[in-house]
Structures are given as C-alpha cells and as structure tokens.
Amino acid sequence: MIEATGLRKQYGDFTAVDGIDFAIEPGEAFGFLGPNGAGKSTTMRMIAATSTRSAGDLRVLGFDPETHGPEVRAQLGIVPQADQLDEELRVVDNLIVYGRYFGLPLDYVKRRSEELLEFAQLTEKRTARVDGLSGGMKRRLTIARGLINAPKAMLLDEPTTGLDPQARHVLWDRLFRLKEEGTTLVLTTHYMDEAEQLCDRLVVIDKGTIVAEGSPAALIREYSTREVLEVRFGSARNAQAAEAMAGIGQRIEVLPDRVLVYDHDGEAAMSAVHERGLSPITSLVRRSSLEDVFLRLTGRSLIE
Amino acid sequence: MSELLLEAPAPTVRGPLRGIYAGNTRSVVARGLRVIARNNWLIVVTGFFEPVFYLLSMGIGLGALIGGVEFYGTEVPYAAYIAPALMAVSAMNGAVYDSTMNVFFKMNYAKLYQQMLSTSLGPLDVALGEILLALFRGLLYASGFMLVTTLMGLNLAWTAVLAIPAALVIAFAFASFGMAITSYMKTFQHLDYVWVVMMPMFLLSATFFPIEVYPQGVQWVIQALPLWHGVDMIRQLTTGLVQPSILLHLAYFAVMILVGLVFTTARLRALFLR
After folding, report:
1. What is the pLDDT of residue A295?
2. CA–CA distances in Å: residue A159 to residues A3, A289, A290
C-alpha cells in the first residue's frame, strides 16, 4: 500500500531522512517510533505528498506522490502534529468545508459530518468555536476531519503529544475503533506505550535511519530481556553502585537518575543486589518496553 | 459509521496543470464566503469609505474652485473627472487589502493553505480561489462607489455601465499580484512596504490631475504603474470618451493577472509542497 526504498530528504546540509526502506500493508497499524528530530514527520509529509523527496523511490496507493500529489492526497486522511483547524469556522463547518476541498457533494458531506461528530464525541460542540475546544477535542476533531474522505490510510503525526492522560485514552479508544474497522493507520510517536498499544508493526527510527523493525513484542524479545529491574541510589551514587552490581542479570545500563538491570527474572536480580550488601533508595521490577529497545539500540532515551 | 461511504473523487485534470490543479476552486471560494457570512461584514465595508470621502472633499470642495479639466480634448467637470479614478482606487484597495493582509494572516498564522493543500486541492485551486475572493471585495467596493457616483450624476455616458466589469479586471490584477507579493513576506513589517508603494501610486496616477502636468520622463514612470491604466480605462468609460488605448490597458492587466497567478501558484508549491 505504501512502499519506500532508499527514501531520503535533504534540507541544505542537513539530512532529515537518510535512505530508509519500509512497506506498509493494507489494514495494518504501522508506527514510526523515534525521538524528536529523528525524521518521522518529514517521512510522513513525503508519504502525504506535501513534501518532495531528495532521493529514493516512494509509492503511495500505487502513485508516485511527487507527480500525483492530488490523487494521493485524495485517498489519505491526514492528522498533522499541530492540529491546524480552521479557526474562522465553527466545529461542524470545519468538517463540511474540508470535505468540499475533496470535491465531495455538499449534501453527502453534511450527513457524513454529523456521523463523524458523533464518532469524535463532539456532537454537543457542533456549532462551537474551534478556539474554545480543549486539546483533546481539537485532536478528535482533526481526526474526524481526516476521515471525511473515507481515506484508504490515515496518517497520524504524534497523535497524542501534548494531551493529558485521560484525553490520550479517549483518543486511543477512537483509533482502536478505526483499526477494528480495517482502516490502515500510519503513525509516528515518541511514546513507547502508544506504539505498543496501537502498532501491529513498527520501525525504530533514529537520526534519519531505521535501526530496527518488527512487532512491538518481537522487538522486545529480540533487543531486551523479559523483565527489567530499576534501582535508584541517588544521582551521585548510581555509577558506583552499578560497578558493584557487575555480573548481575544479562546487562546493566546506567542512566543519570537510575540503574537498569536487564534479566529474565527481575526478582532474582533484586535479591542478588541485596546479597551484595547494596540498598537502593527505590527499586522496581517491570516488563521490558520499547523504551528499553530504543535504549539498547541507540544508547539514548526516547524522551530527553 | 454509515453503510455508504463516498471516497473522494480522483482529480481529473490532465496535461500541464496535472498535479497543481484539481478543478475545485469553488470549494476555496465557498470557504471564504462562509467566513465572510459568519463574521466580518463590518471589516469588509470599512475600506469602502476612503475613496468616497476623497470624492466628497476633493470633488465637491476643490471642484468648486477648479471647474473643469480637459480629458482627451473634452472639458469634464472636476468631480466627474476624479470619480472614475477613485473608482479604480476602490477596486484596487479592496483587492489589495484582501490579498495582502488577509492572505498574510492565513498563510503564516492560520496555516489555512497547509490545510487546503493536504487535501486533493492543488496550489492553483488555492491561488485562484483566494484571488477570486480578494477580487470579490474589490468588486464590492467598486460597485458601491459606482452607486454613489450615479446618484451624484457623475457618470456622463452609457458606457459607464462597463466600468463595473472594468473594475473587476483591475481588482483581479491587483489581487493576483498582491497575493504573489505577499507570499514573499515574512513579517508584518513587510506589509508596510505595500502601503509605501500604494500611497504615492494613488496620489500620482493621474487621479486628481491630468498626467500631462508631469515632464515626459515622469509620465513614463506613471504609465508603467498599474493604477494609471485602471484610472484611464475607467475614466474613458464613465466619460464616454473611449479611445483605442483601452485595449492596451486591458492587455496590461491581462499580463498582470497571468504573471500574478503563475507566481502565486509556484510560491504556494514552494512553500507548502516542498
């Protein structure tokens, strides 16, 4: 459905995307996971035919977005990082007017807008001004707007960035519904929990290149252990304590605020730490996440 | 979700405009009209009064002292001499207000064109739609002004009815050029440059006195500027002293429209589809 080979984007001396390959299948939820500035948004804009590529090949729904921009955009739903709603129009008019940009008939667009308002849980706000909506409502309206043309694929750039936890869960729920209905979702995120919840398959992207690819579970299996022990000794003593822990678990990672011990059995690792006479201020055993995968692959955290 | 979902129709434009034009300019115009209908009728009319006040003060006040001015060999009352010039100014003002300040806001703050260009619209649809809206405002000002001058008995011949379509041409040219120029502006300060050009052009383009008072060299400069062509064209029509040179004026504006459109489209593409 969407296929890239050797895709590159250069802005002057800066290479935002440095030769990436990926293929997105119909009906799947595909994620680009990486820190800010990794090249995720640039990649999305190239797929969405709102940015040209510097090199490589890209096919979106059978078209080259470079030469068939309007055809490609006609079949995509786009949810940009900044909501970019039309603040001069009321909530429902945002949907109607946007639908008309696609050349859809007015009476159809009007009917469809009401359904989408319902889907986005915004029916009560239908004649409200857009600038008075909360962040979560704006994002849901943007998603509803992106659905007006019954897109073959939905492109979501950082869909829950800047939202509070409750608004994020409401949004995830809506995205799940779309996924269940078979809509292809392509999303970027720097939240590992979001990637784990929503994505069937993802690529980990860093500094414009893909460093790993697979399902969240497979990536965790491949690049991390089943469990992780997190211990804190206070920022001044973490490094020293880590030396004293050498040999415990399969791998030890020292972060400024904590030490991570990777092991298939976190509790056992914890006992081993105590046996060496170390007493951490806090300790916690948890399952491995994509955050650990990213740390393993790049030596850095996702959110810095 | 409904059982029957319509997919967006694929744009059918072929040939050299393929990829930059989807043949859906009307949706851009409809959006603008919806906003006007909802919000700012008052803002729309404010710019209309400026030339009306000039007409009242200069035309009636100064006109009493001056009497008549010669235009293509015929003596014309002063108020009837400046009225068509001010109508051209009306058309220009309306078009320029909209295509500079409003477009600047939509381009840089409301991110409206980014939104439009993430649909199947192409940059030419957006450029043309926004220019038509600016032109609409120019036409509105010019029509209102025409009403005032008709009531004051300042239209001297039947050809004056053609002044409305002529004003449309003028507004189209200024809107198209204005939007192209606005696409290069980065800050609000840059917008001031527009008025630095507009003000002297308004005062010096044979608006209030014949161009013959200038030395030849200055006349050429004035004649190179668009407003002079608009003033002379509308004046020919409202006085009934129509000359062959009217075709030249039309040709001038045709080129201006075309250049503005090509530039605006290219700029929108460069800014939002790069």
Report:
1. 85
2. 22, 20, 18
Q: Write down the mean pLDDT value for chain B.
A: 89
Residues on chain B touching A152 (C-beta within 8 angstroms): 7
Measure the CA–CA gap between A85 and A133, rounded to whole angstroms.
11
CB contacts of A78 in chain B (<8 Å) are: 118
The mean pLDDT of B194-203, rounded to a whole number, is 90
Q: ipTM exceeding 0.95? A: no
Angstrom CA distances, B56 to A23, A81, A148, B139, stand at 70, 53, 52, 21
How far apart CA B62 and CA A40 sit, in angstroms, is 66
Mean per-residue pLDDT, A268-274: 82
Chain A residue with the nearest C-alpha to that of B106: A86
Interval B139-166 mean pLDDT: 91
Chain B contact for A238, CB < 8 A? Answer: no
Average pLDDT over residues A271-294: 84
Could you write out the DSSP letters of every residue in chain A? Answer: -EEEEEEEEEETTEEEEEEEEEEE-TT-EEEEE--TTSSHHHHHHHHTTSS--SEEEEEETTB-TTT-HHHHHHTEEEE-SS----TTSBHHHHHHHHHHHTT--HHHHHHHHHHHHHHTT-GGGTTSBGGGS-HHHHHHHHHHHHTTT--SEEEEESTTTT--HHHHHHHHHHHHHHHHTT-EEEEEES-HHHHHHH-SEEEEEETTEEEEEE-HHHHHHHHS-SEEEEEE--TTTHHHHHHHTTTSSSEEEE-SS-EEEEES-HHHHHHHHHHTT---SEEEEEE--HHHHHHHHHSS-S--
Of A71-75, A239-243, B105-109, B149-153, the range with the lowest mean pLDDT is: A239-243
| Domain range A2-215, CATH architecture | 3-Layer(aba) Sandwich (3.40)
Q: Touching check for A52 and chain B: CB below 8 Å?
A: yes
Q: CA A279 to CA B99: how far, in whole Å?
A: 70
Phi, psi of A187 (to 5 degrees): -135, 150
Contacts of B11 in chain A (CB under 8 A): 70-71, 74, 103
CA distance A15 to A164: 33
pLDDT of residue A268: 82
Domain boundaries, chain A: 2-215, 225-287
Give the per-residue pLDDT at B210: 92
Task: Provide the whole-model pTM.
Answer: 0.86
CB within 8 Å of A92: residues ≥ 6 apart: A113, A114, A117, A126, A127
**Partner-chain contact A103 B38, CB within 8 Å:** no
CATH for A225-287 (3.30.70.980, 3.30.499.10, 1.10.510.10, 3.30.565.10) = 3.30.70.980
pLDDT of residue A301: 67
pLDDT band per the 50, 70, 90 thresholds, residue B248: very high
Name the band, by pLDDT with cuts 50, 70 and 90, for residue A254. Answer: confident
Q: What pLDDT is recorded for position B217?
A: 93
Q: Decide if A84 and B35 are in contact by the 8 Å CB cutoff.
A: no
Measured distance CA(B239)–CA(A157) in Å, rounded: 61
Residue of B nearest to A86 (CA): B112
